[in-house]
Specification:
The protein has about 400 residues and is an alpha/beta fold. Helices cover about 55% and strands about 10% of the residues. Helix 3 (about 80-95) packs across helix 4 (about 100-115) and helix 7 (about 185-220) packs across helix 8. This is Transposase.
């Protein structure tokens, strides 16, 4: 039986599908709710075509929950970037007006016409890393808000004695030193004590999440933390968002995806590049953390940064150069880890067959293709590793 494509336009409460053959002839369609009954009805409807591939739009966004459920049930799923679906919708209809039916057809058409779409694969460890990193980031934001409220209260209780970077121990000492007698002061101190208790609780949760991330990263055999400035959080976010590093053709494509490759802004005889705002901004932030850590410590990254400043580059320009170096180092380490894992799987598999999959994880992000692949100048091939 001929293989069919099931294009899916996913939403929180519903999913619209269209089934097409390899000639883009419509074979069926439907709209289903995303609750258990609706999902079961959609699966039952799709069983009419045993040789089926689900094409889900935005499997890292609105389509993630549905893609995850399909993968867990053993279905074959590919990811269709929203940009590609929008282009097909525009070319096929002559306009860009959106309806769920048009979207589902465009998603299916992209899957038929494009042979390089990412085939998704469920990876429980990567999904756990994604959830834990998201959780830790939320806790970090909560900690900042709690510290701000606590400092404001302490500034009122002890005018002129509040610290900017306060620790829980310092806050305890400051609270113990004040004994207001009026009702407003007593209320202020009680609320400050509650904020302090919340801060202690949040910091304990952050510490626990960080330890879990480190355990999973090491269990996967990743050596990302061998790089200067790359701790458990940066390594976990990198693994969760990158998924299968082989989907990037080279370090330039990887840098384009991380937003560390500059955009070509040359004109006439003038050759220059400007800052890219595209790419995966979470990964860009992780690389920025690694860059700042390298600059603060006695590392090769600090020496490289200072050379760039000596060449006349401004601080932010030098940091961008360093971020590109770190992006290249991360890419090389990911490749080395993948190759080492493949070799180990060959030795561990029965009959010597490699178990390493060339499919991408369902937690991957769409590859941005609208940024320049031009590398920044500088010795980008030198790996920035920890010494000793």
């Amino acid at each position: 039986m001929e293989q069919v494509i099931i294009g899916v336009d996913p939403h929180k409460l519903s999913a619209t599908i269209e089934v097409v053959d390899q000639h883009e002839q419509r074979l069926g369609s439907g709209r289903f709710t995303t609750d258990r009954a609706g999902y079961a009805a959609m699966r039952s409807y799709a069983k009419t075509w045993p040789q089926r591939v689900w094409a889900v739009e935005g499997s890292n966004g609105a389509g993630r929950p549905l893609a995850q459920r399909l993968l867990e049930d053993g279905e074959r799923v590919v990811d269709v970037p929203a940009k590609l679906a929008a282009r097909v919708r525009l070319f096929d209809t002559g306009h860009n007006r959106k309806t769920d039916a048009h979207d589902a057809h465009a998603v299916a058409a992209v899957a038929v016409r494009t042979s390089t779409l990412r085939v998704l694969q469920f990876d429980g460890e990567l999904e756990a890393l994604r959830m834990l990193t998201d959780r830790r980031e939320a806790l970090t934001r909560r900690r900042v808000q709690t510290v701000d409220r606590l400092q404001a209260l302490l500034a009122e209780l002890l005018p002129g004695q509040a610290k900017r970077d306060i620790t829980t121990g310092q806050a305890k000492t400051m609270l113990a030193s004040v004994r207001p007698r009026d009702i407003a002061g007593k209320t202020r101190r009680r609320i400050a004590a509650e904020e302090l208790a919340e801060l202690i609780s949040v910091e304990a949760k952050i510490k626990k999440a960080t330890a879990e991330l480190k355990t999973i990263v090491l269990a996967r055999g990743s050596r990302l933390m061998d790089l200067h400035g790359v701790g458990p959080v940066v390594a976990a976010r990198t693994l969760a968002d990158v998924g299968d590093v082989t989907r990037f053709a080279d370090r330039n494509r990887f840098a384009s995806w991380t937003g560390t490759a500059p955009l070509d802004a040359s004109s006439g005889e003038q050759n220059r590049h400007r800052l890219s705002r595209a790419g995966n901004r979470r990964m860009n932030h992780m690389i920025h953390i690694a860059a700042i850590s390298q600059i603060r410590l006695d590392t090769e990254g600090r020496a490289y940064y200072r050379r760039k400043r000596a060449e006349g580059k401004k601080s932010l320009e030098a940091i961008r150069c360093l971020k590109r170096r770190i992006s290249d180092a991360i890419y090389r380490q990911l490749l080395e880890d993948a190759q080492r894992s493949a070799v180990e799987d060959v030795g561990a598999s029965p009959g010597g067959h490699c178990r390493a999959s060339q499919e991408s994880s369902a937690v991957d992000l769409p590859l941005h293709i609208d940024t320049s692949d031009q590398p920044l100048p500088g010795p980008a091939e030198k790996t920035l590793r920890r010494t000793g």
